[in-house]
Amino acid sequence: MSGEETDLTRRSLLAAAAGAGVAGTAGCSGVQTPSDVAAAASVGGNVGYFRGPAQVDLGASTFVDARSKEQYRAEHVYGARHAPIETLETRQASDDGFVPDAAGMASALESIGVAPDDDVVVYGSSVGSRVSRVVFALEYLGHEGDVFVLNGGYEAWTGRVGVGSRSHGTVDYDPDPQPGLVVTREWLADRVGTFNADGGPGLLDVRPPEAYLGARQADALVASNARHGHLPGAVNVRWTGNIDGRELVEPGTLAQLYFSRAGLTQSGPTVVYGQGNVNPTNTWLVLRALGAEDVRLYEGGFGEWANVDAERRGRFPVETKTSTVIETSGSVGGGDDGGFSCTG
Questions:
Q1: What is the 3-state secondary structure (H, E, C) of the chain?
Q2: What is the residue range of the signal peptide feature (predicted)?
Q3: Res. 274: pLDDT tops 50
Q4: Mind listing the pLDDT tens digit for each residue in 139-189?
């Protein structure tokens, strides 16, 4: 199917569904209307990036959909462009390790008609890591416009909707890479022994605790890794703890999690890493939203660190004995099958 519908709104579709639900549950309380869902997604306080549907400028914003192609084609915010996630996570090798592929990411944005000065609202099924990778790509490229995330994901949207897909034309996107947003394998190796120590950089491992601990035969272990465990000194806070279903966890709770329980400082620097370069961008984004001044992504991730050549592993040690796991209880909603998704 191609083209876009213009005579439906998300509010009208949800209202019809809600009406059917009310009719079937006459006399019951607790039925949520579309307005309730949208209002619940609003974000208060001095929190960056995250906005509810009522808090975004509909007329002046370019919407970018980070969900799957199938979900986008079925229904999306009217006029939204579909984010080519696979291209926005590309990276390239350097002498110091992997770095983001700025040219490739800029080309991806050009292909969907996102200009450097556009104000962008990114949304997904939730506020998961697919969404945060798009935000990271924009910020790394030096995006000039404002960048926001739709809290509550597409399910909180009550405005005009489109179906199918169509071309939005191309634009020029001249990247201005921000190297201060990333670290490399060599940068980390130079600082082994200083992480999360007095005066040293913060280091967060966002993987499941079983992967962080290198637990034998755990499902969370990645078979392609030559070694298991974590970077010396890293604290484990699983990234899914940032999310409650489709929304950001209450910001005060997150501030306590990171700046009290995990012992991070807002002045930084703090480095976040995962197995690859998508999931850790969620914690990167949340820390920035909470006011952390210097948050950096290890683009190569544990997948790069664990698999260096055998003769060089002394410079890139992996630890299992010393560990700090901060338990969280978050969950990410919005899988294609209506269940949960680890990528949001």
A1: CECCCCCCEHHHHHHHHHHHHHHHCCCCCCCCCHHHHHHHCCCCCCCCCEECHHHCCCCCEEEEECCCHHHHHHCEECCCEECCHHHHCCEECCCCCCEECHHHHHHHHHHCCCCCCCEEEEECCCCCHHHHHHHHHHHHCCCCCCEEEECCCHHHCCCEEECCECCCCCCCCCCCCCHHHEECHHHHHCCCCCCCCCCCCEEEECCCHHHHHCCCCCCCCCCCCCCCCECCCCEECCHHHHEEECEECCHHHHHHHHHHHCCCCCCCCEEEECCCCCCHHHHHHHHHHCCCCCEEEECCHHHHHCCCCHHHCCCCCCECCCCEECCCCCEEECCCCCCECCCC
A2: none
A3: yes
A4: 999 999 999 999 999 999 999 999 998 788 889 999 999 999 999 999 999
**Which position has the token pair 């005009």?**
160
**pTM score, two decimals?**
0.89
* Distance set, CA 139 to CA 117, 126, 259 (Å): 12, 20, 23
Confidence of residue 331 (pLDDT cuts 50, 70, 90): confident
pLDDT band at 34 (very low <50, low <70, confident <90, very high): low
Question: Which token pair is 65?
Answer: 């959909």
Please name each of the domains of the chain with its CATH number: 34-177 (3.40.250.10), 180-332 (3.40.250.10)
Separation between Cα atoms, residue 146 and residue 61, nearest integer Å: 9
The CA-to-CA distance between both ends of the chain, in Å, stands at: 25
The answer to whether residue 289 scores a pLDDT higher than 50 is yes
User: Facing residues of 301 across strands?
Assistant: none
Q: Which two tokens stand for residue 44?
A: 């208060």
Please identify which residue in the block is written with the tokens 């910020």: 139
